[in-house]
Amino acid sequence: MNEDPVHAARAMVDAVYRSDSRRVLATLIRLLGDFDVAEEAMHAAFAAAVEQWPRDGLPANPRAWLVSAGRFKAIDGMRRRARFDASQEELVRQIEANADDAGQEGQDVEDDRLRLIFTCCHPALLPDAQVALTLREVCGLTTEEIARAFLTAPPTLAQRIVRAKAKIRDARIPYQVPERTELADRLDTVLHVIYLVFNEGYSASSGESLTRHDISGEAIRLGRLLVELLPEPEAQGLLALMLLQESRRAARSSPSRELVLLDQQDRSLWHRGQIAEGLALVERALSSRRFGPYTLQAAIAAVHAQAPTAAATDWAQIVGLYDVLARADPSPVIELNRAAAVAMRDGPAAGLALVDAILARGDLGDYHLAHSARADLCRRLGRTAEARASYERALALTRQEPERRFLERRLGDLRD
Fold this sequence. Notes:
The chain is mainly alpha-helical. Helices cover 72% and strands 0% of the residues. It has helices spanning 5-32, 35-56, 62-82, 86-100, 112-120, 127-137, 143-150, 154-170, 180-202, 213-229, 233-246, 272-288, 293-306, 315-328, 332-346, 348-360, 368-380, 384-397, 401-415.
């Protein structure tokens, strides 16, 4: 039976929204100069598409159609308001001038989302607000997803985003990539933003899927653009880290969408092209001797990528790299990862002592992976009661369904 053309066209609008809405929004922010006006215009453009595309057919360039429709709808709205507020007419003239000059802008970086990242990461904004605003506006993560990343309440996070938008508007922060003399100072925050985006895609914070390929793919794309713009060692290191981690995506879950641990993955499924590109970037970043934490994490991922089997992994080298990383960027999560590596090099008892020390300090008490790691080490040592208690604690904390099922299976194995 042939598909209803109206239904097919609306499905196409939905598909374009999923794939291109953030690009449309970024361009509208550049043209309209205001986050909220641009978001309203974007939604109006998609609403028009729902009405017109089933009747007129899909345009040759859907994204350009949506940008044009959104811009005209925003200008029409401003002109109507200009009857009561003369300042709106001046705003319309500025917007039309911006649109006329659009072709002359941004020869160094042609992607509006990268301009938008630098706007969101302006030093006038607080660091947490920079990250939250970018995750929301550039990548389309929900307020709830970002709140989980910050371990804060969604209403608090929402207010942080509202204040950041107001600051950009009131301080007239420009929508542009900074001059090259300013880029280095802004790089750390931009790298952190891209890293958080990738992490949400590589290991989704909640839901039915282990990964969100659209988000991790977006982070990698932004990482590539950043390396083209500013080929600093840490930008190269972050891109390498993302590629090496993403190379394992197909092997990280079974056909039935169950979690598969690193030592059990089918390495023939690893993406060799991404591994080769990542290894080359790691080597380039390390050779500069101006690298930092992202490059060190990429070097650790490279050791895993180069091991033909799990048993062949050079755990001594990984522990050594974690030693350097812990000095460069000390954090409880890095300590936890180092403890897992020590357990592989020296045995589960050595790793468990380190994990218990982290938890005893009060660090990572609400981090499900810390309790999952402790449970696994206790299981390997035959300390079944402790393993069960730690698995149960991890299960209570995780919000991701594949991880929940994995932990439930481990608990079931201990009860048998």
